[in-house]
């Protein structure tokens, strides 16, 4: 007997609703849920492979604990005993910062990853916190923090109503979008064109997205901030600055005008390899469009001027009056957002409250650069203890971060490491304890993070599609128990973690004058929460306190968990709406157009005007059937064009004697790799491209299919020293490399 169950896809940021076919306890099929309020039936090949990914025989079924040097199957009790015994002595002897925490990308795709790591970090009190954000979007957080006072206030293009979209370093036809949650991003771009809108793509590669564009500018990698500064210059020079209704909320317009004075289109032309007239046209098109948005992603963030580029993206939206207006770029309002407080001056955003021990990198958003993890483990200094114990949750930095070989060695030298991971892979193979979460079909789902970045306000929740298999533990419980074991409360009931958070959150809410529960008794409120588990009670609490919530009875029509459960395909909460000035949390209560750290970093960008370009630079690429480092183990998602090849332009290939299909050696500051060449004019001259997440050939892993076509680790070409200084984000694109065709 087969049945169906609904499940939001956790495999990329698009959050499509899936209808799973289930035979017994096995997912045998997945199709798009046509009734889903947001995705309306869209699905991509990864979603369609949900069943295969879910049932991958290489997924670990129970915990592993290292005994006599070898990882062996163990009971959950033994595993958490080992965690407590591994971490507590390190804290007691060397202090909290000697315990590092690495949080990887899938934490934003699980409920557990949203709900428990904050409690773990607060309980540990460590400053050694590293996440995938510093390989990804930290520049955007920093620029939002500086401009708007809130690192999480990220404007999202109003994709369904936009007139003109300028995409920078993003390839949503492969990635399905990022920091812009939009199921069927490709369809939404096509709809933009059908309604007469225009699309411009800035990308050194002629991607599938670029092919859809009305204008494609194949910029030299790493130089977007120069181009955007020049576009800003043109807006001022040609009298095109028109912030309109934003004007009363802005501070520093004149200073901004001065700051971009040197960045004329002519001055940036050589560095960007973009003709001055093209830059002027880009600025004029943006200003002339009835509504427009500039949107930058990986290619605009993971570069030396990532924060400046991310800042300029919003500056252009602001100067053209497109920020916070329908059809432009707006701040979403998610159902689990905190109760919006009244607008007004706030604490602002501060960078560099502490620094990394070895290279003195400033913290950003409470994090240190993941690029610096290896040195924080393997290098002794007088400034405190190296990291001796590590907690890794859903992270594979040996492949995703720079210089995997060094990190690989460093992980091997730790006193203790625990990985919460379904696979024994390049990173988790170093763990002393591996705690495997159940497959996604057995986990509940709600998108805490992506709803705050979605092109439409909506809310959806799924209970597990399949009951937990015997011997499995929910990832929420794993992380709650891990938190207790790591913070000196080993063995306590995991619901204690949820009760603690509920008590603290409600205790705070009743004191806030703007909260719907102001002045009420937190215990009385807690008693009203519904849900069959701690995480469900927490979701209920967040929904009820949130902007659409029932306020614990104050607004009886408002959202509750019960109401959400009664709408299995989700509840639409309407299009994005203007929200300023409420989201601003700067000290001035305004948008601070030229924050000091940005002004201080501009001379570095000015220096780039005269820099001679590198002869050959490397950029990345994504494939629709892949996702970072962990989906190469599913046969349906590998092969064909999804291969770890080096794209090289025919002119470069000829000059360097590289033949199509032949192995070429690529050398960078961190090492060298050999990969087959794919000669294609899909990359511009002077640029080569290798995808990331490959290199599955290390011993001691258990990913049998991935090992049959391992590919190479592109991040071995990096030594971890190239960072965007303001955000600590790794430079992963525009990296100088040398190529030699083997003899
Ligand atoms: N050169 C280059 N490098 C890059 C990038 C690039 O563009 N170029 N992109 C960067 C970006 S944007 C990112 S986000 C990072 C990603 O880098 P990471 O954060 O390391 O993420 P993944 O490589 O996806 O590895 C995720 C890990 O989580 C595990 N996992 C999967 N599902 C679950 C789950 O439900 N629960 C738990 N606990 N674990 C799970 C997987 O087995 C895997 O070990 O890579 C970065 N690295
Ligand atoms: N299929 C698939 N989907 C994914 C992922 C995946 O691995 N596979 N990963 C997910 C994650 S974690 C993320 S963060 C998102 C990322 O989502 P996107 O940002 O859309 O990801 P990419 O496809 O890497 O697109 C980045 C583009 O930037 C270009 N680029 C490189 N350097 C520069 C530069 O200096 N300037 C400009 N203008 N462009 C440049 C590259 O050629 C590439 O086409 O995708 C998510 N979705
Ligand atoms: S686009 Fe993303 S969320 Fe949608 S089905 Fe594909 S992988 Fe899943
Ligand atoms: Mo990412």
Question: Remind me, CATH topology of the largest domain?
Answer: Dimethylsulfoxide Reductase, domain 2
Strand content: 15-25%
Q: Number of helical runs?
A: 26
Uncertain residue segments: none
Domain tally:
5
The set of bound ligands, ions and cofactors reads:
ligand MGD, iron/sulfur cluster, molybdenum atom
The secondary-structure class comes to: alpha/beta
Percent in helix: 25-40%
Overall number of strands: 29
Largest sheet: number of strands, sense, barrel closure = 7 strands, mixed
What is the CATH level 1 assignment of the largest domain?
Alpha Beta
Q: Which architecture of the largest domain per CATH? A: 3-Layer(aba) Sandwich
Query: Per the principal axes of the C-alpha atoms, what is the gross shape?
Result: globular
CA radius of gyration is: 25 Å
On the 0-100 scale, what is the average pLDDT? 97
Strand order of the biggest β-sheet: 5-4-17-16-15-6-7
Assigned CATH superfamily of the largest domain: Dimethylsulfoxide Reductase, domain 2
Cα separation of the termini? 60 Å
């Amino acid at each position: 007997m087969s049945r169906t169950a609904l499940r939001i896809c956790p495999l990329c940021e698009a959050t499509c609703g899936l209808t799973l076919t289930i035979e017994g306890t096995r997912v045998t099929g997945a199709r798009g849920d046509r009734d889903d309020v947001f995705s309306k039936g869209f699905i991509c090949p990864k979603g369609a492979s949900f069943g295969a990914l879910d049932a991958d025989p290489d997924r670990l079924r129970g915990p592993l604990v290292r005994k006599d040097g070898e990882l062996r199957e163990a009971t959950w009790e033994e595993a958490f005993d080992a965690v407590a015994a591994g971490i507590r002595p390190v804290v007691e002897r060397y202090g909290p910062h000697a315990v590092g925490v690495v949080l990887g990308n899938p934490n934003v795709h699980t409920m557990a990853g949203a709900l428990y790591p904050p409690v773990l970090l607060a309980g540990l009190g460590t400053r050694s916190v590293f996440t995938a954000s510093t390989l990804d979007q930290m520049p955007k957080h920093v620029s939002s923090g500086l401009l708007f006072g809130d690192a999480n206030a990220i404007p999202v293009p109003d994709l369904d109503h936009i007139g003109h979209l300028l995409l920078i370093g993003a390839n949503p036809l492969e990635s399905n979008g990022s920091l812009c949650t939009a199921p069927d991003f490709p369809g939404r771009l096509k709809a933009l064109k059908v309604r007469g809108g225009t699309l411009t793509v800035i990308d050194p590669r002629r991607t599938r997205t670029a092919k859809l564009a009305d204008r494609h500018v194949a910029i030299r990698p790493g130089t977007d901030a120069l181009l955007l500064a020049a576009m800003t210059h043109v807006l001022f020079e040609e009298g095109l600055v028109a912030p309109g209704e934003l004007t009363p909320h802005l501070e520093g317009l004149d200073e901004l005008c001065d700051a971009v004075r040197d960045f004329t289109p002519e001055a940036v032309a050589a560095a960007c390899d973009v003709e001055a007239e093209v830059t002027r046209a880009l600025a004029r098109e943006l200003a002339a469009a009835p509504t427009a948005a500039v949107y930058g992603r990986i290619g605009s963030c993971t570069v030396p001027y990532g924060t400046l580029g991310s800042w300029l993206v919003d500056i252009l939206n602001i100067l053209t009056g497109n920020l916070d207006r329908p059809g432009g770029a707006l701040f979403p309002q998610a159902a689990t957002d905190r109760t919006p407080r009244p607008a007004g001056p706030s604490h602002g955003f501060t960078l560099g409250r502490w620094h990394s021990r070895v290279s003195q990198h400033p913290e950003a958003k409470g994090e240190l650069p993941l690029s610096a993890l290896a040195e924080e483990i393997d290098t002794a200094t007088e400034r405190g203890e190296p990291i001796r114990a590590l907690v890794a949750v859903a992270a594979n930095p040996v492949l995703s971060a720079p210089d995997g070989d060094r990190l690989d060695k460093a992980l091997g030298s730790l006193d203790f490491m625990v990985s919460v991971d379904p696979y024994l892979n390049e990173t988790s193979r170093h763990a002393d304890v591996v705690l495997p979460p159940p497959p996604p079909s057995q986990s509940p789902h709600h998108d805490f993070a992506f709803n705050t970045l979605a092109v439409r306000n909506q809310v959806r929740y799924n209970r597990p599609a399949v009951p937990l298999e015997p011997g499995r533990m929910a990832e929420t419980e794993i992380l709650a128990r891990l938190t207790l074991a790591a913070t000196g409360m080993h063995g306590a009931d995991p619901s204690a973690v949820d009760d603690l958070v509920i008590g603290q959150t409600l205790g705070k809410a009743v004191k806030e004058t703007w909260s719907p529960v102001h002045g009420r008794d937190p215990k009385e409120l807690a008693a009203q929460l519904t849900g069959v588990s701690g995480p469900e009670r927490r979701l209920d609490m967040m929904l009820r306190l949130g902007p659409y919530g029932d306020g614990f009875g104050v607004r009886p029509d408002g959202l509750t968990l019960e109401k959400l459960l009664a709408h299995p395909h989700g509840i639409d909460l309407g299009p994005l709406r203007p929200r300023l000035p409420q989201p601003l949390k700067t000290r001035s209560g305004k948008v601070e157009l030229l924050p000091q750290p940005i002004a201080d970093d501009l001379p570095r960008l000015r220096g780039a005007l005269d820099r001679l370009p590198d002869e050959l630079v490397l950029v990345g690429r994504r494939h629709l059937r892949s996702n970072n480092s962990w989906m190469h183990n599913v046969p349906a998602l590998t092969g064909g064009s999804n291969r770890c090849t080096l794209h090289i332009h025919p002119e470069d290939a000829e000059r360097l004697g590289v033949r199509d299909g032949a192995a070429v050696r690529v050398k960078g500051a961190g090492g060298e790799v050999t990969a087959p060449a794919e000669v294609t004019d899909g990359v511009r001259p002077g640029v080569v491209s290798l995808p990331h997440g490959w290199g599955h050939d290390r011993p001691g892993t258990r990913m049998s299919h991935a090992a049959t076509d391992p590919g190479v680790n592109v991040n071995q070409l990096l030594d971890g020293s190239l960072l965007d200084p303001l955000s600590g984000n790794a430079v992963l694109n525009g990296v100088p490399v040398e190529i030699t065709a083997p003899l």
